[in-house]
Amino acid sequence: xxxxxxxxxxxxxxxxxxxxxxxxxxxxxxxxxxxxxxxxxxxxxxxxxxxxxxxxxxxxxxxxxxxxxxxxxxxxxxxxxxxxxxxxxxxxxxxxxxxxxxxxxxxxxxxxxxxxxxxxxxxxxxxxxxxxxxxxxxxxxxxxxxxxxxxxxxxxxxxxxxxxxxxxxxxxxxxxxxxxxxxxxxxxxxxxxxxxxxxxxxxxxxxxxxxxxxxxxxxxxxxxxxxxxxxxxxxxxxxxxxxxxxxxxxxxxxxxxxxxxxxxxxxxxxxxxxxxxxxxxxxxxxxxxxxxxxxxxxxxxxxxxxxxxxxxxxxxxxxxxxxxxxxxxxxxxxxxxxxxxxxxxxxxxxxxxxxxxxxxxxxxxxxxxxxxxxxxxxxxxxxxxxxxxxxxxxxxxxxxxxxxxxxxxxxxxxxxxxxxxxxxxxxxxxxxxxxxxxxxxxxxxxxxxxxxxxxxxxxxxxxxxxxxxxxxxxxxxxxxxxxxxxxxxxxxxxxxxxxxxxxxxxxxxxxxxxxxxxxxxx
Amino acid sequence: xxxxxxxxxxxxxxxxxxxxxxxxxxxxxxxxxxxxxxxxxxxxxxxxxxxxxxxxxxxxxxxxxxxxxxxxxxxxxxxxxxxxxxxxxxxxxxxxxxxxxxxxxxxxxxxxxxxxxxxxxxxxxxxxxxxxxxxxxxxxxxxxxxxxxxxxxxxxxxxxxxxxxxxxxxxxxxxxxxxxxxxxxxxxxxxxxxxxxxxxxxxxxxxxxxxxxxxxxxxxxxxxxxxxxxxxxxxxxxxxxxxxxxxxxxxxxxxxxxxxxxxxxxxxxxxxxxxxxxxxxxxxxxxxxxxxxxxxxxxxxxxxxxxxxxxxxxxxxxxxxxxxxxxxxxxxxxxxxxxxxxxxxxxxxxxxxxxxxxxxxxxxxxxxxxxxxxxxxxxxxxxxxxxxxxxxxxxxxxxxxxxxxxxxxxxxxxxxxxxxxxxxxxxxxxxxxxxxxxxxxxxxxxxxx
Lengths: 522, 449
Fold this sequence. Notes:
The complex is a heterodimer of chains A (522) and B (449).
Chain A: H1 7-17, H2 25-32, H3 40-53, E1 58-74, E2 77-95, E3 98-104, H4 109-126, E4 143-147, H5 159-174, E5 181-197, E6 202-220, E7 225-230, H6 240-245, H7 248-263, E8 266-267, E9 271-277, H8 279-291, H9 296-299, E10 329-332, E11 353-358, E12 361-362, H10 369-372, E13 384-385, E14 394-395, E15 399-402, H11 411-416, E16 420-432, E17 438-450, E18 453-459, E19 461-466, H12 467-472, E20 474-477, E21 484-493, E22 498-506, E23 509-518
Parallel strand pairs in A: 4-6, 8-18, 9-16
Antiparallel strand pairs in A: 1-2, 1-5, 2-3, 5-6, 6-7, 9-23, 10-11, 10-15, 11-12, 13-14, 16-17, 17-18, 17-19, 19-23, 20-23, 21-22
Chain B: H1 5-17, E1 23-39, E2 42-60, E3 63-69, H2 74-89, H3 114-117, H4 121-137, E4 140-157, E5 162-178, E6 184-191, H5 199-212, E7 223-228, H6 230-237, H7 246-250, E8 257-258, E9 262-263, E10 274-278, E11 300-304, E12 307-308, H8 315-320, E13 332-336, H9 343-348, E14 352-356, E15 359-366, E16 371-376, E17 380-384, E18 387-391, E19 394-400, H10 401-404, E20 410-413, E21 417-419, E22 430-432, E23 435-446
Parallel strand pairs in B: 7-14, 13-22
Antiparallel strand pairs in B: 1-2, 1-4, 2-3, 4-5, 5-6, 7-23, 8-9, 10-11, 10-13, 11-12, 14-17, 15-16, 16-19, 17-18, 19-23, 20-23, 21-22
């Protein structure tokens, strides 16, 4: 058994490891406010002992702290500056083939015993009616510490600097004639996770995520029209260096110009067009059509009541043509700055990388230890995740990305092959059916492509397609130089719904003859 | 454990006593939540969670800072207040500051039934297992979500306001999918009183819909007359409540904005038989008695007889526009003034149309028209000559909710029923009727079941 690791020690170590000069004052105050030191190892011992006494075949406890800082502005005002932290634990037991889970914010020995007993009672109450006994594939308990890739902890950066960054961007947007409103924000997230299992695992993880964002609205009050253009940023598992390197001011100015331009842009004529999709747009199409359809729990009907099932079935593995032969999708929980990148999942399995679609053929699923027990390979891909100490872990999406072309190809190269098409930037409205066939996506800006060249701006564009038809129509991919990582912090799944942060990398990509509609006319 | 009114009051008072700010507001909320999921004919996950969280907002020399924590011991409260003060000190002046409220009186609304919180674990397991068995006997596979929740919300201010409310909830959703995968039915209901949730009906309706939706036929997309069951109405209208924001409308960026910088207040935007109201004391739908920032919630109309009567003003925007801040909405009730028509009679009254049971994955496509996209799910049926002809495949729609309810497009209105939007998973509660509307725009077909 490892030495007991207190949270205070961990923070000190983390702070040194990350090169921070000192903990910020607010964190020190928070630390000072801890009336009693939390001895996580001792608490884990209590929970696991209760589970052992009850005959649990598996048990774990997660003791996690979540911190968030958010700043919201509009025009010249700061609307909100807020910090949140949330601390607690959850105990999960597997008794007589049935799960039990209970969690509390009261992180005390008494509460840990109570919740462990509540979890056991739940498992025992459910066990007589459990039609299929839960089984997990074996896993050796790891002893590990892991932190995500970042240079500067955003929680150490003075607030004034962050506010200045936002108000400066707002000012830039409002300089543009016709730009009426601008909202901007910065959000930072820190997860401090501790996982201990009955298999001897003791894993500490420290994750940092950052999200700069902005939205400009241009109002034509005479005509009663308005248009918006959001920044093309996505959140990343990165520190404040991501915010500093992102050209928010320039993006604000461009967003303002384009919001104004949209007011007078030509409405799209509905029909079939070739589409060239920028990574700032395409990540969301990858997420909905590829990320969700390749979740094995969905294919088995486990999410039938809410998130839905999948058009893919276990029989399709290795056979179904998902896309054209140039299409390769890789799942990766190790990708630097990926929002779903971790050292270990919430089953204690080390993160990995694997293909979901290879040369256009569907070749693998997203799995957890529970799902892997139902597959021939019996290998978990480490997709177990809970969004809080109080949430039960289940299968969540890893970073799922479209691989770039092996040869160098630019946006211009892809446009060159289009006679009559549309170039789309940024994510807009999105929707997909419960089996992931039929989808509709909008965007932020739309540009006509005529005879291989980017032309004038269009508006009111959305495209509808069917997942395998769409990816089958992909006939051009950009090279590595065009690859960008998009993503979201709030992918919802499960009941009660849980949020998952996940990234999707893509190059620019071209699709032939896709159905486009005019959203204003429809 | 839920905090009682006296415990919540003590914690709020203590937090307020720790700040020397010019003004301050604290809110304290928490819940005890228990759930059981089932799918593929067996139990999958379950959970029990107890949590409570305190948020502190302070204003110091006009500057605002906020901090939130779920650690409620005295030292942690002190630290949370200190964080809020630290943030306020380095923030610019809050241009939208409105002094916090003083003491107000609140009329209790009900909605808390102790028994709902104490449903025995084995009784829950047995009742869900019964639904799984019933599905199996009917040739269907069950999936679903059962939850009970008790929650409380309290608030207090530097100027002497204090309010507290608590409520309970039980909800159950069941999806029944036929074994060959060609039919799917869904039914969801919730209540604050465990004795008022008709578990047997929920299972029965899901199974019937699954069996009736088998072997759907393809039908071309286009504009159809539709009968929307209350669930489908909840899925549509539960999504678009933010449209009533006054500031958005005044700023020219809402469906209720008009050319020339005005709003559509006073205009007959909806069918004259329709009224949207909110009523925290409605016996079927008791709502919170404190609205934004602690304003006592009131019963009022947003839309009366089709006329847009009120938009929702925040305290800041109301002050700026010389309008009272809106005391709600605490909940959402849509009612018709004409005698209600049953779904069966709506079908009998329809020459050709579609009966829709549920919508899925709704997103705004165009905020200028409150246009949404989304899909039908778990049962669509073609109606011909006053009878259900056969099930049809699902559709994607692109439709403005405001145009859907506009004068001339609403045909028949049913009896309002307590429902919950499926995207809220049973967490919200709305009182909505079935509707028959003349034109609803489907833009493509989906083969999803």
